[in-house]
Write a structure and sequence with these properties.
Blueprint lengths: L1 E3 H11 L4 E4 L6 H10 L2 E4 L3 H15 L3 E5 L3 H16 L3 E7 L15 H5 L5 E4 L6 H13 L5 E7 H5 L1 E3 L8 H4 L9 H12 L4 E5 L11 H8 L4 E3 L19 H7 L2 E5 L19 E6 L13 E4 L2 H11 L7 H22 L8 H9 L7 E5 L2 H9 L8 E2 L10 H11 L5 E6 H4 L5 H7 L5 E6 L4 H11 L14 H5 L5 E5 L5 H13 L4 E6 L13
Parallel strand pairs: 2-3, 2-4, 4-5, 5-7, 6-7, 9-10, 9-11, 11-12, 12-13, 14-15, 14-16, 16-17, 17-19, 18-19
Antiparallel strand pairs: 1-8
Helix pairs in contact: 1-2, 1-6, 3-4, 3-16, 9-12, 10-12, 13-14, 14-15
Length: 548
């Protein structure tokens, strides 16, 4: 069959199991759209390329397989840079196809001509320029292999317009089989280092387990629950590991990590770095604990804090190996009880604030009311700062892949892309975006794209008329009169989205929360995106949080 380059690309994507392509239109990449129509890949368009990149990222988080976006040359590529950086920092696999002018006109000033590869190389696992139509399928296969190998991440493929427009006989083109082009094998722990870890844990009286995002990419996610069933210990999950431990699990802790780290004698750090979320492993927050560090990337072992044992391994396989090797544990119930008391004390303060009846609603009360509408399959996306940080402690997520947030890069604006991908990947699941009012303003027009393309999600805005996560510290450091660039208005975003085809409601009273949420979910059930814009009161819950 004679086919143009865009059809060859689409065929290659189809072989990789791709069902959706996220994009903002551009002349350089239209042949790919044409090919997608032929092979049954749905082309989903957005209103900003950053959203296309976040949607590819979100698709990977929900499905466990790389998402794909396509952007046009020049500003199309520069607009997607933030999404690529977010995926790289978060360890999320995606493939970004970028357009380019004709190869013969490179560096001659063609429309949107620029050096994309040097721009994206620092924020991707690899960046390739495909110069021959007959090699398009080969490079697509390579991109998927690289994106999923080791620590997952984004891969950029540049495809000039003439390469996509040229025709080739497809029978003469190599078509790599995904089943043969890469391995599903993941690194298992070195047996010598594993023995050292087992010996260290054997005598531990106050162990703590911290599990991060790399668990999401393990073939053995269940190893965490299996290990804790036989070797219970206080466990904290972060990033994409949220939900791997159900909220009601006796080893699940969220509000006592500082107390745990101060007293622990052994800490197992799995698939998460010593970054700002754990105070870089510094004394003060951390006591004299010995560290067992598990990471797919050996260069992360010893970063920011020295470790006694380093396992270059997949988190699930490492936890399984520990389970298979550890003897029966000593009685650690006093340690668990002491931490549970600390946890319960902190949660009691939250519960008291969540029960307040004042108007406008307390943000914890808003999250408590929203939580009543979530079920075991609801996907929750956080896009914002202060309000989202509150929601992260109040909304119950019971399985991996059901919570997504800006991640360690702190990228606001992820919400619409994540939400679109989540609803398309799992159409029977409820999808909720918890927004700060600042973050909602970044990509409001994506609600039009959702309404037009039948992607019904529920958006809940915690509207405190400010970039509060930043403003709180700004006021504390410099005073109210010098707090500039962080104040907003109580904008009626609910009215903004109605002409876009969405359901919108404004809430100022606690008594109205449940009814508004019910109507929003009913609207989504009927096929319309919904926005509930809640004016929230100030709260002491996040007092002292510093966002630097």
């Amino acid at each position: 069959m004679l086919a143009h380059g865009g059809r060859i690309v689409a065929d290659a994507l189809k072989r990789e199991g791709v069902s959706h392509l996220f994009t903002l239109c551009g002349g350089h990449i239209q042949n790919i759209y044409d090919g997608c129509l032929d092979v049954g890949i749905r082309v989903v368009d957005v209103r900003h390329e950053q959203t296309a990149g976040h949607a590819a990222d979100g698709w990977a988080r929900v499905t466990g397989q790389p998402g794909v976006c396509a952007v046009t040359a020049g500003p199309g590529v520069t607009d997607v840079v933030t999404a690529l950086a977010n995926a790289q920092r978060g360890g999320v696999p995606l493939v970004c196809i970028g357009g380019a002018g004709p190869v013969p006109l490179t560096d001659r000033g063609s429309l949107q001509d620029m050096n994309h590869l040097d721009l994206v190389r620092p924020i991707t696992k690899a960046a390739y320029r495909v110069l021959n139509t007959e090699r398009l399928a080969e490079y697509v296969s390579t991109a998927f292999r690289v994106a999923m190998s080791g620590v997952p991440g984004p891969v950029y493929l540049e495809m000039p317009i003439d390469v996509l427009m040229d025709f080739r006989e497809t029978d003469d083109i190599d078509k790599p089989d995904p089943a043969l082009a890469r391995t599903l094998a993941q690194p298992a722990p070195d047996p010598f280092e594993l023995d050292r870890a087992v010996e260290m844990l054997r005598g531990a009286e106050r162990p703590v387990l911290i599990v991060g995002s790399q668990l999401r990419w393990s073939r053995d996610e269940s190893a965490l629950l299996d290990l804790l069933a036989k070797h219970p210990m206080p466990t904290f999950v972060n990033g994409m590991a949220r939900g791997a431990l159900p909220p009601e699990h006796p080893c699940s802790f969220t509000r006592s990590r500082r107390a745990a780290l101060a007293e622990a004698d052994v800490v197992i750090m799995c698939g998460t770095p010593f970054d700002f979320r754990v105070d870089y492993g510094r004394p003060g927050t951390w006591g004299d604990a010995k560290i067992i560090k598990v990471d797919r990337d050996g260069s992360q072992i010893g970063h920011n804090r020295g470790v006694e044992v380093g396992l270059v391994a997949d988190t699930g396989l490492a936890l399984r190996a520990l389970l298979n090797s550890l003897p029966a544990p000593p009685d650690r119930s006093p340690w668990m009880a002491r931490l549970r008391a600390s946890e319960d004390k902190s949660r009691a303060k939250m519960a008291a604030e969540a029960a307040t009846e004042g108007d406008p609603p307390n943000p914890l009360r808003v999250c408590k009311e929203l939580d009543a509408f979530l079920d075991d399959d609801t996907i929750v996306i956080g896009d914002g700062g202060d309000f989202v940080a509150t929601a992260a402690y109040m909304l119950k997520v019971r399985r991996p892949g059901l919570w997504m947030d800006p991640g360690p890069l702190g990228t606001l604006g992820v919400g619409p892309g994540y939400a679109m991908a989540a609803k398309l990947a799992r159409p029977k699941s409820k999808v909720v975006v918890v927004y700060g009012d600042g973050a909602f303003g970044l990509h409001t027009m994506e609600l039009e794209a959702m309404a037009r393309q039948g992607i019904p999600v529920v958006c809940v805005i915690g509207n405190d008329a400010g970039w509060t996560q930043i403003r709180r510290g700004q006021v504390e450091f410099f005073g109210e009169e010098r707090a500039v660039a962080t104040g907003l208005a109580y904008t009626r975003y609910d009215e903004v989205v109605k002409p876009l085809g969405c359901h919108g409601e404004w809430v100022e009273r606690t008594a109205d929360l449940a009814g508004s949420f019910a109507r929003a979910f009913e609207a989504a059930e009927s096929g319309r995106p919904a926005v509930v814009n809640v004016r929230i009161a100030s709260s002491e819950f996040r007092k002292g949080a510093i966002s630097v």
